[in-house]
Design a protein that fits this description.
44% of the residues lie in helices and 7% in strands. It is an alpha/beta fold. The protein has a 5-stranded parallel β-sheet with strand order 2-3-4-1-5. Strands 7-8-6-9 form a 4-stranded mixed β-sheet. Strand 3, helix 10 and strand 4 form a beta-alpha-beta unit.
């Protein structure tokens, strides 16, 4: 390894690495939450970009199963659930997008509908071919023990018997000629796929009539294959057959030229699931925005039912921290992924370690330590407090002296004075003479620590300090791609900082605070550009900016720190779900589905009321200089207020004015502290 290379340079390794590297890089930490993938029943694996959907689905692929076997590494699926084979299709890699090349402006409804049925036929042939490829790989000489564990009979005569029976099945509607061997069957399936590829790439003007007249019903040949594999004794009766459909989000992108082709293709996939076949189980990998709330079934008025036709594994929900930290598995996953990445390098460390992030990033700094870095000079510390003209000189002198000794405590003291002064409490005339000061009470201090740092950084025109394992984990927001993205930028910043140093000793780096903060800030600013991708991208980006600037302004200008939780907003659930507010709800759902916002239902301060709270994705917070931690209650708003913000985003109003988005009741309180 070149020591100047970034160990986290390649983020999307799932689709690029070989099977042996997969075994070394795959973390089994999430497996306990994904066991439904290895049991009968249709499963929708939902997650944001980079959440690990493809990684989990790849565990079903034969190449990966063989790699674990060859490396003599324990397969990370429960032993009772290992009896399965799978075939599948990656909708991006298979060239499904090429179907869209045939749809032109003015294409007839009849043409688009027939093309949709051809899509279903293409999927059938591709998946069946892949199932047979799985059997071929695992039946090779040398894998008889594994084949027996899975329940595969490796006798080629049995394979040929199955092939004859399958080629005679009515499910092909004349599309296959009768065959006498497994190889002949594979050859005919492959020929059909090649014909499709030639047609989709405009190498031939039209499909052969033999294909046009023998389009198969989505899912039917796949089920027949599973049935015959068992009745012909190729598979044991209790061996499960799983069908992988990955990159489902490719289909909505095929809705162009005023056609609903992509949506119709989705509905065909739903039709395969609606059969509720006991012979095969589907596993669909999809991003949140792609899987519809009500999955309609092609050419019917029906739709799939959650828990009946399918179940959902929501990766993001499982990995994101809940109110109660207990049971949160993402820190363990991130640590394991971090170690596995470094094991592929020449860095020297004990490969048996289970904790490494603290060694590389160092001990987390306290709020007091961060404050002294933000205001390093004595002169700058004298300016951290904003005084009011009517404040008694003895309080001004006390706060000024305290700001030089302990700027963090001084900032909290200012807020405490403003709050207590508003309440006109007599003790404010008396200055505390010894520690602990009244503003050092555990929870009062904890709730305002982040806001105090925001104000200190703002007063001194500094960026916030982001450092240590907790910040790295927290900013990742439960998404492993974001975690790796942050590591990549931190490593880049460290490499820049050490460009004049010799780092060829292969010892693990000790990355300093400045490199971590700069790397995290760069990552955040780059991630902020991502909303320019996807549906309604421009409006989403403008809205994100408006939300970010709003809460930066509120936190900076609330000198009394009376509302330290205002870095997100909360809406009444009944108001949000009202028909009249469909536009706002759908827009916010879209922002959540793309990962711009995080949402959760919470109990209101008003008895009996349910609300939904929204926060920016943690990775975006450094770009806006706001905390990612959620302290106390978010800002309570009405739906009409969010609608106005969305409207302003659409109108692309300037965001340069600091007070632009602050309502009157959000401005700093003005009162006579000592009247």
């Amino acid at each position: 390894m070149d020591e100047r290379l970034n160990s986290f340079h390649d983020l999307y390794l799932t689709e690029a690495i070989g099977s042996d590297s997969f075994v070394k890089l795959f973390s089994p930490v999430f497996m306990e939450h994904s066991m439904a993938l290895y049991q009968p029943g249709n499963v929708i694996l939902k997650g944001l970009q980079g959440s690990g959907k493809t990684m989990l689905l790849n565990l079903l692929r034969p190449e990966i199963r063989l790699a674990y076997y060859n490396n003599q590494t324990e397969f990370p699926v429960n032993k009772d659930l290992r009896k399965f084979i799978s075939g599948g299709i990656n909708l991006r890699k298979s060239g499904v997008a090429e179907f869209g090349q045939l749809i032109l402006p003015g294409s007839s409804i009849e043409f688009v509908r027939e093309l949709t049925l051809h899509f279903g036929d293409f999927v059938n042939y591709w998946v069946v071919q892949d199932l047979l490829r799985t059997l071929t790989l695992i039946s090779e000489v040398g894998y008889k023990t594994l084949a027996s564990e899975i329940g595969i009979n490796t006798d080629l005569k049995v394979f040929d018997k199955f092939s004859k029976a399958l080629s005679r099945s009515d499910c092909w509607l004349g599309g296959l000629n009768e065959v006498n061997s497994f190889k002949e069957l594979q050859s005919q399936l492959n020929a059909r796929i090649i014909s499709y590829r030639q047609y989709l790439n405009l190498n031939i003007d039209q499909l052969p009539s033999s294909i046009s007249k023998s389009k198969t019903a989505i899912g039917e040949p796949i089920s027949i294959v599973a049935e015959l594999l068992k009745s012909c004794n190729v598979l044991d009766d209790d061996t499960n057959v799983f069908i992988r459909i990955d990159q489902y989000e490719e289909l909505p992108s095929l809705d162009f030229s005023e056609s609903d082709f992509g949506r119709s293709c989705q509905e065909l996939i739903h039709k395969a699931l609606s059969a509720r076949s006991s012979r095969v189980s589907y596993r669909i990998g999809a991003r949140h925005y792609a899987w519809p709330e009500y999955p309609e079934i092609f050419a019917t008025t029906g739709s799939l039912e959650n828990k009946r036709d399918f179940s959902i594994i929501n990766i993001d929900e499982a990995l994101r921290r809940a109110e109660n930290r207990k049971g949160w598995i993402f820190p363990a996953l991130a640590e394991d992924v971090f170690i596995r990445r470094l094991k592929l390098t020449k860095y020297k460390f004990d490969h048996g370690v289970s904790v490494l992030l603290d060694d590389v990033l160092g001990v987390a700094l306290s709020s007091d330590q961060k404050s002294k870095m933000l205001v390093a000079s004595e002169q700058s510390r004298k300016s951290v407090i904003k005084y009011e003209k009517n404040w008694p000189i003895k309080w001004v002198d006390f706060l000024e002296k305290l700001s030089v000794e302990d700027p963090f405590s001084a900032k909290l003291a200012e807020a405490w004075v403003r709050q207590k002064g508003k309440e006109k409490q007599e003790p404010l005339h008396n200055i505390p003479e010894e520690k602990p000061y009244p503003w050092d009470k555990k929870y009062w201090k904890k709730e305002r620590a982040e806001q105090a740092l925001v104000q200190l950084a703002s007063r001194n025109k500094q960026q916030l300090i982001w450092q240590g394992k907790n910040d790295l984990i927290g900013l990742s927001g439960g998404n492993i791609l974001i975690f790796l993205f942050l590591c990549q930028h931190i490593w880049d910043a460290w490499l820049r900082d050490t460009r004049d140093e010799d780092i060829s000793c292969h010892t693990l780096p000790k990355i300093n605070v400045n490199a971590q903060s700069m790397g995290i800030l760069n990552a955040s600013e780059e991630w902020l550009k991502k909303p320019v991708e996807g549906k309604d991208s421009k409006r989403r980006l403008q809205f994100i900016n408006r939300v970010g600037y709003r809460y930066y302004n509120i936190l900076v200008d609330d000198f009394a720190m009376s509302n330290p939780g205002k870095n997100g907003f909360s809406l009444p659930l009944d108001e949000l779900e009202a028909k009249a507010n469909d536009d706002v709800r759908k827009f916010l759902n879209l922002a959540v589905d793309y990962g711009d916002l995080h949402e959760s239902v919470h109990t209101s301060k008003t008895k009996g009321e349910k609300r939904k709270k929204y926060y920016l994705a943690p990775i975006l917070c450094p770009a806006f200089k706001i905390p990612y931690k959620h302290i106390k209650e978010p800002e309570y708003m009405a739906v009409k207020g969010i609608r106005e913000m969305i409207k302003e985003s659409t109108q692309n109003k300037s965001l340069s004015s600091k007070k632009k988005d602050i309502e009157a009741d959000d401005l700093p309180l003005q009162f006579n502290l000592f009247e």
